[in-house]
Amino acid sequence: MTTFQISDTVGKIVRDRPSPSRLFEQAKVDYCCGGKKTLDEACRKQGIDPQVFLTQLEAIATSSQEPELNITTLSLTELADHIEQTHHAYLHTELPRLERMVTKVAAVHGEREPRLLQIKDIFLAVSQELATHLQKEERILFPMIRQLEFSTVIPSSHCGTIANPIRQMEFEHDDAGVALEQLSQLTDNYTPPEWACNSYRAMLDGLLNFERDMYQHIHKENNVLFPKAIALEQSKSNQN
Predict the structure, then answer these.
(1) What would the DSSP string read from start to end of the chain?
(2) Which end of the chain has fewer CB atoms surrounding its CB within 10 Å, N or C?
(3) Locate the Hemerythrin-like domain: which residues (predicted)?
């Protein structure tokens, strides 16, 4: 039985079955910011045969025995809580650690590998932007979403409709996506040179895990949380 179609959007595929997400990551097929593209479009953009990729997806979906969190069944509040407790908590801890690592490695090895200076600048910039981004979600958007879910009427807000702050968060997600692509390119897909010291290798491992977590994080917001919040607000607006 076919599980997926090449006409499915990549965001829908990972939303419904998270297990293939690593295959998307390995192939550099963007399922978070680029989640609205069909599998066919996303594969062709990367020069991948869509049918071959579809077969690989089917194999993973069929063989995966790992229990998966079905985020589509979570309430808005439960999903917002999950994102904060999982992805925001990870970033609050990991961003400062990676800032120290990229700074140290660039200082020690930047003369031999000038790209490390670019990596440092890009990461420090995206880290600062993410710190502000997390605050806006935790203090403004997520409380709005929770209030919307439990209110019988649409809560009033200086933001107007909830789509306004969501649109801003999606713009910022796109900016983060660009930074992730740049980091991947500058590190040769996080591959250490033969001469790399342990700190260099640990930095690349940390950046790879950062990329993987960000893809999952943005996917859950762009493709699940945000559309459900907008749909709920529209539904309540129609009832009033």
Answers:
(1) -----TTSBHHHHHHH--TTHHHHHHTT--SSTTTTSBHHHHHHHTT--HHHHHHHHHHHHHH--S----GGGS-HHHHHHHHIIIIIHHHHHHHHHHHHHHHHHHHHHTTT-THHHHHHHHHHHHHHHHHHHHHHIIIIIHHHHHHHHH-SSPPP-TT-STHHHHHHHHHHHHHHHHHHHHHHHHTTTTPPPTT--HHHHHHHHHHHHHHHHHHHHHHHIIIIIHHHHHHHHHHHHHH-
(2) N
(3) 85-229
* Structure tokens, 112: 């031999």
pTM of the model: 0.77
- pLDDT single digits (tens) 31-67: 877 788 999 999 999 899 989 998 888 887 666 545 5
Closest among 100, 99, 80 to 169, alpha carbons compared:
80
